[in-house]
Amino acid sequence: MTNPSDTPPAAAPDSAANPGSGRPVVFRHATVLAMDDQRRVLTDTDVLVVGERIAEIGPALAAPSEALEIDATGGVLM
Question: Rounded CA gap, 44 and 74, in Å?
Fold first, then answer.
């Protein structure tokens, strides 16, 4: 009998779970908690991540055509 804890985790199905894959990711319509001095809360905001870095934050961002788009409506990013 196999112990479930001995089973390795499944591989990530796409680049959303593997940010090092090089595919840009854009989160759409998130509530963003900016970690700045003003402690801003940005509602209905997009966040573009390229590689392991945040490339851009703002409303209705233009994203590269190859970007994976994630609907973050109702979610919080910080």
Answer: 9
